[in-house]
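Thread title: Can someone regenerate the structure for this chain?

I was given the following input by a collaborator and told the matching structure tokens would be attached. They weren't. Posting the sequence so someone can regenerate them.
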Amino acid sequence: MRNRGFASDNNSGISPEILAAISDANSGHAIAYGDDIFTQKAVAVFKKMMGADIEVFFVFTGTGANVLGLNNMGRSFNSVICAETAHINVDECGAPEKFTGMKILPVKTPDGKLTIDNIKQHMHSFGFEHHSQPGVISITQPTEIGTVYTPAEVKTLSDYAHKNNLYLQMDGARISNAVASLGVPVKEFTKDAGVDVLSFGGTKNGMMYGEAVLFLNNKLAKNFKYFRKQGMQLSSKMRYIGAQFIAFFNNNLWIKNASHANKMAQLLYQQTKDIKNVKITQTVQANGVFAIIPKQLIPKLQKEYFFYVWNENTNEVRWMCSYDTTKEDVMEFVSLLRKMSSEL
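Best answer:
Regenerated them for you:
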């Protein structure tokens, strides 16, 4: 199997700049649990980017960021409305429901994006004690199938949520790729668009580990530090997360990394869209390509390049590009796919 595949941007290594920052932070002692200069500087960078009135908390994982952020947005009798493909619904092993007690209400979508029309099916039974009470709308940016919400689309959802006394949460595990795709400041489609709580990811874009929970509506941050501790997401040596985020934002490394991953996904799309027996299923807006290919090709391709099957019933696969995916990786994969497809 090749050294680099298309399974996940989690599979890539650490950006050299970030690895160097971890090493630099490893000199001497530093106060634990976030009272170090690295964490404080990283928080200051986030506040400069998003506004001085936000609250910033670092955690280990994306699941931790989502679960703990949601926990502060409702009570156990509330429900969370999300796309059926959302990470909180599919890939977090029931952690949101277990930890928060809130019910997840999935919505079927053609492109992973929520709209007011497809949310309305769950907007009922307010004040009726026999039903969970809708409390949060959760969106993923980019979505799990690589599509991207525009700032206007996010604003429409937040206005609707707030009008109905709900909050809007955004899972931004790949938020760097959304910024690179949209070409606008991250604040424009998050805080300015009415997002209340944001999970800000770094691991999928060159960091070793570490995510941030940003309370853009700072009133929702009350008691979060206690829930973070109870949720086992409080890092004692937090300086290593802070140091990574400092390097992440320095010289726009996060945008450079994401832009490259997106560019490689576009190249992969352009090179595969006309191959015999290959059908691209989603608009390629970030760093993922989704395609239906003949079932018999999947295990043969996976022997050389590992990737995931997205839908076993339809033979839909997912090809993810990373900050370190090369043009050669893409072209060699395409060549193999084209050769195998032609032999059918």
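The CA atoms of residues 76 and 275 lie 49 Å apart.
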